[in-house]
């Protein structure tokens, strides 16, 4: 038996939208989750989540439709990018504020030649 490494991180597997859409359609049509799980190798927990979301998208159950959650995820990603850009801008401004402009040696800024 393999022991898990405490530093090891498990990343959820990602599936194309077309696959998810096709399987969700089969689930809504009445195919058993266990059958689809054994055919595709996708975990039953994932399939149940997809089925629940398909029912929400169809208006059968209450919840947030996929379109709205996709828009929300996109907005959150954009906000994170803008906040990172703002932080860089603030750091650059702070750096320039700390630097003082020194006149060239031997000349004062107020004298004109």
Please tell me about this protein's structure.
With 113 residues, the protein is mainly alpha-helical. It contains four helices and no strands. Helix 1 (17-28) crosses helix 3. It is elongated, with a radius of gyration of 28 Å.
Q: What's the layout of helices and strands?
A:
Layout: H1 17-28, H2 33-40, H3 44-57, H4 66-98
Give the amount of beta strand, in percent. under 5%
Helix/strand-derived category reads mainly alpha
State the helical fraction: 55-70%
Question: Helical region count?
Answer: 4
Round the mean pLDDT to the nearest integer and report it: 81
Quaternary organization = single chain
Radius of gyration, CA atoms, in whole angstroms: 28 Å
Q: Which spans have pLDDT < 50 for at least 5 consecutive residues?
A: none
Could you list some keywords that capture this structure?
elongated; 113 residues; mainly alpha; 2 domains; single chain
